C-alpha cells in the first residue's frame, strides 16, 4: 500500500468498476438522473431468488414476536383506549446476529459467482461480521476495514466486538484511527487484492433487505389478519429503510407507513478524533442518516442503491438515553437482550404507538445481537470515563457528547420529527452542487429529482431555479 | 531489550497510513493534527522484535509490513460495572405493569 492519497483518489472510478462489476455509467440518463429501477432489476435478484440464496446460509425467516408486555406499558402511559400493538422482527436470529446478513448474502453470492477470490468491505458495524460470516461459508477470503480507535488508542467498545467477530470468521481486519480517509485505505485494499467490493450501497445489498420487508408483511398478516399500519426502521445509511420499504411494496403492503428513526447525535462531528468516542452509538444515528438522506451519492460506489428519501413517510429522532432505557425495558419485560443501536426504532415505536388506536399494528423491523462491548453498560462506562454526565432525568435535557439523560419514567420518551421538507430542499441543493456551471438539466433530471424527493416537477423546478439563480420557464 | 518473537506467532502490527500533512483537506482540525494510524493482526512471517519492523501474513493471506506491536493481543472489551442510572429501570417498569394506575 504505497500509493499516495491523490493517486488513489484519481483512480477511484476504475477501482470501483473493477471491484463491483457494474458499469454505472450505463445507467446514467441525465446530468443527475439515472435509471434506478433498471440498476436493481439487471442484477437478476427478485424476491424469490434472493430468498433462495439466503436460505442456503440460514439467512432470513426470522421470527416476528409480539411485544405484549411493552404494548401493555405503552397503554399504561397512553391516553385511555390508546396504544397500538408492537411487534419485533428478531433479526438477531440471523447467522452473524443482525439483519446485515441479508445485505451481505447476495454480495458474497455474486462475488463467488463472478469468480472473485475474496470480498472486502469498509464498515465498523455489524455488516463486517455479516460479510465475514458469509465469506467463511462461501470459502472466500475477506478483508474488513474499520474505523476503530482514536488517537489515544481508545477503541470504541462496540467496534472492538465487531473486530473480534470478524476475526472469528477468519477475516483480515484493518483497524484505522478516525478519519474519512478510510475510503482511501479501502481503495488501496481493493486495488491490491482485486477482491469484490461488498459495499453496503450496491444493488445486491439493498435487494438482500427486500426479503425482510416481504417476510414481515406476510408474518404480520398471518398473526394479526392485516399488514402492519406502520413499520419503523433504525436509519443510518438508508439501506434498511430502502430495502424494507421495497419488500413491503412487493408483498402488496402498499398502505403501510414507513418510519425512519435515528439517534440524535447533533453537534458531534463524524470525522473528529475527539468526538469519535463521545458518540455512544456507532450507527443508527443522525451523523449518518442526515447526510445520507440529503445526499445518498456520497457512498463507496458511484450511485447509491439505498435512497431512503424515496421511501420514508416520516423521519424521527430519539436520544441516546431513550434508546438505552428501552433496551433495559426490552430485557426486563420481554426477556430479550438485543441492541442497543438496533433498538432505536423500538424507542420510537414506544412513543408512536401511544398516539394510535389499540387495533393498530406497529412492526419494529430489526434487532441485533448483544454481547461484550455491544451493550449499554460498555457504552456508558466509556462515556463516564470520558467525562460525559450520565443521569436520570428528562431526556430533552441531554446534549450529545456532554450528557446522556436516562428517562425517569416511560412517559418521558418522545420523538422529534425531522422536517422532511427541509431534507428535500437540502437534497436538491446537494444535487445542484454536483453539477458544473454549464450542465443543463433535462426533463429526465427534473423527473428524477421529483421521484427522489417524492414531490412534483413543479416543486423541484422551483427549488432548482432558486438554487441556481435562474428563472423557471413559464 | 525485548526477546525475539518467533515466526508464526499471532501478532498485531502498527503503521502510519497518512502523516498529518498527507491527510485529506476537508477533515476537522483536531483530526488533522494526528496521523491516520493502522493496526492489523496476522501471523509473523519471520522472527522480529516488538517495536521493530516486521511482516505478517494476514488471515486473508496477504503480506503486510509495519512495526511489531502486541503479541497475541487480547480482546479486552467487556461490559464494565453496572450503571446506577440503568439499574432500577427493570423493577420500575415491572411495578408499573402490576399497578398501571400508580404512575398515572
Largest sheet of chain B: 4 strands, antiparallel, barrel
- Helix percent of chain B reads 10-25%
Low-confidence spans of chain B: pLDDT under 50, at least 5 residues? none
How would you sum up the global shape of chain B?
elongated
Number of helices of chain A: 18
In the predicted model, the low-confidence regions of chain A spanning at least 5 consecutive residues are none
Overall tally of domains of chain B: 1
Radius of gyration of chain A: 22 Å
Domain module tally of chain A? 3
Rg calculated over all Cα atoms of chain B? 24 Å
Task: Note the quaternary state here.
Answer: heterodimer
Pair with the biggest interface = A-B, 68 and 47 residues
Please state how the strands of the largest beta sheet of chain A are arranged side by side.
Answer: 1-2-10-7-8-9-13
Shape of chain A: globular
- Share of residues in strands of chain B: 25-35%
**Class per helix and strand makeup of chain A:** alpha/beta
Note the gap between the termini of chain B. Answer: 69 Å
Task: Give the strand order of the largest sheet of chain B, numbering strands 1, 2, ... along the chain.
Answer: 2-3-5-6
Q: Care to describe what's here?
A:
The complex is a heterodimer of chains A (474) and B (104). Chain A is of the alpha/beta class. Chain A has 3 domains: 5-52 and 98-203, Rossmann fold, CATH 3.40.50.1100; 56-97 and 207-417, Rossmann fold, CATH 3.40.50; 420-467. Chain A has 18 helices and 13 strands. Chain A has helices spanning 5-10, 12-20, 36-41, 47-56, 68-77, 100-113, 126-138, 157-168, 182-193, 203-224, 239-250, 286-294, 320-334, 344-352, 376-385, 420-433, 443-453, 457-468, and strands spanning 64-66, 85-89, 118-122, 141-147, 172-176, 196-197, 230-234, 257-263, 314-318, 361-364, 389-393, 403-407, 416-417. In chain A, the strands form 3 sheets. In chain A, strands 1-2-10-7-8-9-13 form a 7-stranded mixed β-sheet, with helices on both faces. In chain A, strands 5-4-3-6 form a 4-stranded parallel β-sheet, sandwiched between helices. In chain A, helix 8 (157-168) links the parallel strand 4 and strand 5 (172-176). In chain A, helix 13 (320-334) packs across helix 14 (344-352) and helix 17 (443-453) crosses helix 18. Chain A is globular and about 60 Å long. The N and C termini of chain A lie far apart (56 Å). With 104 residues, chain B is of the alpha+beta class. Chain B has one domain (4-103). Chain B is 17% helix and 35% strand. Chain B has helices at 29-32, 84-87, 89-98; strands at 4-5, 10-18, 36-44, 48-49, 53-57, 63-71. In chain B, the strands form 2 sheets. A 4-stranded antiparallel barrel of chain B has the order 2-3-5-6. In chain B, a hairpin with a 5-residue loop joins strand 5 and strand 6 (63-71). The mean pLDDT of chain B is 94. Chains A and B meet through helix 5, strand 4, helix 8, strand 5 and helix 9 of A and strand 3 and helix 3 of B. Strand 5 of chain A pairs antiparallel with strand 3 of chain B.
